[in-house]
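Example record

One chain of 165 residues, shown exactly as stored in the release files.
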Amino acid sequence: MLLCSTVQVWDVRSGEAVRGWYGPHICGDALDMVGDAVLTGSWRSSEQLEVWDFGTGKRREEVSWYGPNHSNRSLHSQPCMLYAAQFSKENPHNPRFIVAGGSGYNEAKVFDRRKNNEVVGSVTGLRGGVFAVDFCPTGCAEGQTVALGGGDAGIRIVDLLPSRM
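Predicted structure tokens for this chain:
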């Protein structure tokens, strides 16, 4: 089976791709854009969460699923392969948080971009994968409220605690 792991930017006026880059393997709602930063969540066992430069198509950074120090990697027997990823909405030019979720370990995590992408929240041990994630729009506790939906037919609304920020 051939897997095409590319992001293509289409010009709807011409009906053609005008830009593209190789890398992400997107299987769901795991694509978001703020300014010239493109967030991708990939359905794969490594380098699942990445931020790309829209203009050049080059990867700016990998957001490690296990946090910036990788010390808790051994806690999980399976990687989390992502179906959903979003930037927070409190700052349209420089969002503070990223939320992502998927299958494998069936979990979702929130990363704080101001703290070197430290994991500041997680929902783990679910009976099914996480297929949808989003932040409350501006006005809801400054982007600190997250919604998760998944394969266990549950919807979860999670408030990040300001004391942990």
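Notes: The first strand starts at residue 6 and ends at 11.
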